[in-house]
Each structure stands twice: as structure tokens, then as C-alpha cells.
Amino acid sequence: MNISSLISALPGATAQGLIWGIMAIGVYLTYKVLDFSDLTVDGTMATGGAVCVMLMINGTNLWVALLCSVLAGMAAGLVTGIFHTKMGIPPILSGILTQLALYSINLWIMGFKANQGINVTKYDLLVSARNVRHLGMDNPIFIMLAVTAILIVVLYWFFGTELGSSLRATGCNEQMAKAQGINVDRCKRIGLMISNGIVALSSALFAQYQGSVDVNMGRGAIVIGLAAVIISTVIFGKLFHNFGLKLMAVSIGAVLYYIVIQVVLWLGLNTNLLKLLSALVVAFFLAIPYWTKNAKNMKRSKGAKHA
Amino acid sequence: MLDLINIRKTFNPHTINEKVALNGVNLHMESGDFVTVIGGNGAGKSTILNAIAGLWPLDEGRIVIDGQDVTGLCEYKRAAFIGRVFQDPMMGTAGNMQIEENLAIAKRRGQKRGLCIGITKEERQQYKEMLATLGLGLEDRLTTKVKLLSGGQRQALTLLMATLTKPKLLLLDEHTAALDPRTAGKVLELSNRIVKEHRLMTLMVTHNMKDAIAYGNRLIMMHQGRIILDISGDEKRCLTVPVLMNEFAKASGDELATDRALLS
Hints:
The complex is a heterodimer of chains A (307) and B (264). Chain A is mainly α. Chain A has helices at 3-33, 41-57, 62-85, 91-109, 140-158, 162-172, 174-179, 184-210, 221-236, 243-266, 274-306; strands at residues 115-117, 212-214.
């Protein structure tokens, strides 16, 4: 266990964390703002990359490819939204159905191959793992910081608009939203589209970063997203009340997650056990509010007995 | 004007839990009418309000507001005409949003919501002045999250939200039942003031006979999904609780013994 090997792995972990932080912001929008546990992201997290890589291999401009990735992700979100709002399927199941369908669709996009590579020397990529130790503007850490900042500014603006406010009201109190004339079904569809568009953007960036897209790239993405959201609420929940700062905290949460993963790997954990560890950690943190509530009730009933 | 024409609704039809909630309700209200609704548990008081608000489709009948048939409109579309305050103080406001954000959402009831800024400077000033009239000190707490307010404060805010954009019809569904007596009295007075000020056509459900007599210009009593008593004008002004009990006994017949306790 050499500390310098850990330190040399940190820039990579930070860059990855920032890229997955974009995805985590997408998860935050559905999970926290819209109160909708959207499992579509496990599929969308491969779709964005697949669309981007295939388009670029076929000669499409980087920015056009990124835009198409986002649009593909939004389409996936819309499908989940339609499953839920037009067909009455519960949120989690709607997401699972889209996610399953996306597996086939992703393979189809990738020419029925499980993975596709894209070489940074041949194509003009926005981010690449190769540059992670460069001290220049091509360093993915700097680029991702800029992308994250722009995204947060745009989202901050959007959720302050009339439409954005109605999305927040829908997630907060559906009954109130309806009574105030808000079309909550439409709001949910829009929210799912925005969220999955963002996830697909993250996917496209990650595929570029690692130089390839894999059909299994998104497996467990929702758990990583939740982990980032939970880490951010635990550490910054009491500190940040501003919406923009909260989104920033989610991004930091994702970076911390990847750094922790890096440390755990450095300590000698088998890579194949990572997903087990992630699931257990997220389950533990999701349980904390439930446990604290129970503990409070126990205290109260004990107090009542003594009184 | 509001017209309810032969409204029928049965919940869980053809099951063991079948319940005829509304059994042919007819009601005509003039603009500016303030109608109080009383009746025992399960009489259909809240159900009639929910039917008007459009929570579910009717089995039969029509609902017409100011000449427009709204029977086929879904809940959020009807909200353009209707302001509502619920029994549960948590229900009418978004707890995780600020006071001014809640008001801004209510101000846009019935309008298209686009990409304009969600709340303007002029609005803020307007909200400040309106909140000041409540006398609850909320005018200095525009950016406070609503979940930090008391039940009474939330109900007063909901009332303001329901009437911010003047509705054609205001529905008050036992909106003081969850509050302590003193707060309930305050919220009721406030409701009365707002209704009178804007001459709002209002339907108010209440458990309290005294309130039903004291407020409004007309009183209806429901029983087993029907309107069994309809008192207005001078007759309403002279009404007392014993007279009302007596009328109820005559109108409903044998069920008096069981419902007397519930109506006190």
C-alpha cells in the first residue's frame, strides 16, 4: 500500500466524480425536486454515450453529437413519463420498463455490439482521461468544472421561472399544485425529460473520457446518483439552502464518492465487490432518517411512561 | 352562478364497500351567494365539494359555473374558476417552498406558466401588503419556508392563495376543523371578511351548527347524499340551533337519534 499510488489516482477520481456528478444532478432533480424515483437513468447512462460515440465515429461534429445525446436522453425520460402519466404505471416500474427497453435500443444504436471505442487521437473529444494530469485547458477536471457551473446556472434560472416553480410545487405537494391549476402530469414529464437529458449528457462525456461506450455502462447509475445526493445532504444539508449551492453540493458529493471508492480500492478491495459495497452504503444512509424517527418516538413513549 | 344538475356518484360500485355518496343533488347558487353546508358524517358534504372541484368523474349529472359546463374538465383545468381551502392545513400549501413562492404560484392560477421569472419585484410588494392585512406578522417573512408556519398561519395563507386571483367560486372544506378554537375563530372571521370584500360565491362545509348559522346568507343540510334542507333570507337570519335540529328531525325522520350527537 503505497500512498503515492493513491495520490496519483486522485486526479482521475476527481474527473470521473465531476462527470458522474452531472448525472447525480439529474438524479437529484427527479428524486428530490420531483419526488419521483426514476430508474430510467441506468439505461440513459449508456444511451447518451452510445449516441455520441456512434455519431462521432460517423463523422458528426462534437457539439452536434452532444446535443443529439441530450435529445435521446430526453426522449427516454418522456417515455417513462408517458408510462406513468398516460398509462398509470407506478413510477419505479415505469423507469424499470424504459431501462429494460433501452438495453436493446442501446445495443441497436451501437450496431449490436456490446461496446464501441472512440480514439482521442483520431477524434476531437471534449474530455479525455489521457489529459487528466495536464496542466492546461484540455484537462478534463477544468472542463468539467466549467460544464458543471454552466449547468447549475441554467438549472438555477429554470427552476426560478413560472414553469420551474410549478415543477417544484408538483414534487412538493401534488394536491396543492392541482388546486392551483398546475398540470402535474405535464410537469412530471418535463421533469423526467430534463433529468434524463442531463444524465445522457453525463453519459456522452463519460464515454469520451474513457474512450469507449459499453452497454453496461449505466448499471447501478441510480445508486451512484443517490449516493452522491445522500453524501451532499449529510455534509452540506444544514449549510446550503440555496438551490444552486445544493446542486453544487451534489456534484461535490459525486467527487467524494469516487475518491472514497479510490481509497477503498487502494486498501485492497476486489473491484468486483464495488457494487455490493455501494448498495450497502446507500441502503444504510437511506435508513438513517427512518431510524432517527423511530428513535425519537421510542424516547417519547418512554418519557410518557415515566410521566 | 353555479348550477349542479342531478349529480350522482357511487364509490366502489358493485362491491361490498359500495357507497352511494351523492344521490341526485340539485343546487343553484347566484353570484355572491355564501352558502354554508352542514350534515352528519358521510352525508356527502365534502363529496359535493370534491365533485365540484373535479377530483373524479361523475356517474351522472352536470356542473355549470357561470354558464360554462365544466363537467368534462379535469381538476387542474377547473382550478381556473375555483379557489379551495382544505381541512388539512398541510394540503393547501407547498411546505418546502417559500411564502412568496406559494403566493406566486397561486397568482398564476388559470394562466399559462412559461419561462418568465416566477416572481417579480412588484408582486413581492403586493404580497407584503396583502400579508400585512392578515395581522399574523407574515409580511416580514416572505422568504420563510411554509412548513415552518403554524396550522392557523398556513390556513390563512391558503385562504389568501385561494382568493389571490379572484375565483368564480370558493370552496371551503371544513377549513377550520383542524385548528384550536381560538385560531379557528380568527380564520373564520378572515374568511368571512375576504368573501364579503370580493363578493365571492362561496360554499363552506362545517361541522359546527353555530358557525353555519352565523355565516353566509343561505344554509343547506345534507343527508345520505341529498340536500334535505335549504334555508335562506330572513328565515336564515332568524335561525337558531334548536330550530335547525327540529327541522333536521322532520326532514330526515328516524335517523335523528344517531346523528344528533354528530351535529352538535
